[in-house]
Amino acid sequence: MSMEYATIDKKMDEIPTRLTFSTSTIADYIATNFKTDNEKIRAVFYWTASSISYDVEIRDVRTYTGTLENRMNNALKNKKGICNDYAEIFKDIAAKVGINTVVISGYTKYNNVVLSRPHAWCGAKIGAKWYVFDPTWGAGYVNNTVFVKAIDNYYFKVEPNKIISSHMPFDYMWQFLPYPISNREFYNGQTQMNPSKKRFDFDLEISRYRTLSEVEQLKGSSERLKNNGVLNAMISDRLSYERKKIEYYNQVKSLKEFKEVVTLYKEGISQLNAFIDYRNRQFKPLHSDDELKKMILKPIDIFNNCQFRFDNLGAIGDKNVGSLNSMKKSLQFSMQLAQEHERFVFNYLSKSKAVRETLFRY
What we know:
Blueprint: H1 3-13, H2 23-33, H3 37-51, E1 53-54, H4 68-78, E2 80-81, H5 83-96, E3 100-110, E4 113-114, E5 119-126, E6 129-133, E7 140-143, E8 146-149, H6 160-163, E9 167-169, H7 183-187, H8 202-209, H9 214-227, H10 233-280, H11 289-311, H12 318-349, H13 353-356
Parallel strand pairs: 1-2
Antiparallel strand pairs: 3-4, 3-5, 3-9, 5-6, 7-8
């Protein structure tokens, strides 16, 4: 490691303990002491890798409870965590010192053997180029069930075409390669770039990805994941996870739409009731024929809109199906009632003024 990095590492070793329990205070210390992105990202990597110990006891826990912020706070407080904690802390500090950083989920290979646990690491854009950082593997190693702290600088600022031999993202966009490799090629150790493939502009795709909603991001990710080959349980689990999140977001969107249609339906009922009240008063005070038509056609238009939106509504969850069916029945009844009044209006308007008044006699 160059003297430049040795100086940065030494400065990070001097960070006051009171500043090490928050990514904000760590980031402030880095921003105060270092100027370039290259210096800052080294400081982020070194502090994360040297300060957090791998928590062997919970490495097989697949379900993470609590918010991301709480999990990071716990890792910072205890100075222990697993790969997700290392990656999220790295990303959060880096982002706070102004470096474009992402957490990457995937699986790995060690000594030519594909490991059975999923893994998380980071990518950061320094200047115009993406590099890969793995603060977990850079922190040390596990000997049987004991974590041995030993900084491994190989996992600092690694060229994407080198790290791909051991780190395989679930979503090939995060390989940062113009010719991404497939899962099958990763298993077979075929990680050399193959220009005969269709070129993939990952920078353009990442820029586009960041303009999308979360559900659209998930749709794109799951499609790329599926297309790259589902070869193991980790990939399958990730694909299932992303599809469930898509389903959840779609359900949330549909439920919001349902509530909006219910509000619209109530407006239609209000308009229909206003017309019925006016009819009960034998259309007095008198309005023009056009105004009278508008009075009855407005709730009908609203009910038609409600019907169209109900017909095109996505899944809203089993517990809401009863409410949806009830609303559909109410809408059908209201539409029939409005259409009866519509027939009366058009019959009324087809008569002479003398005859019109007789239509109110029952």
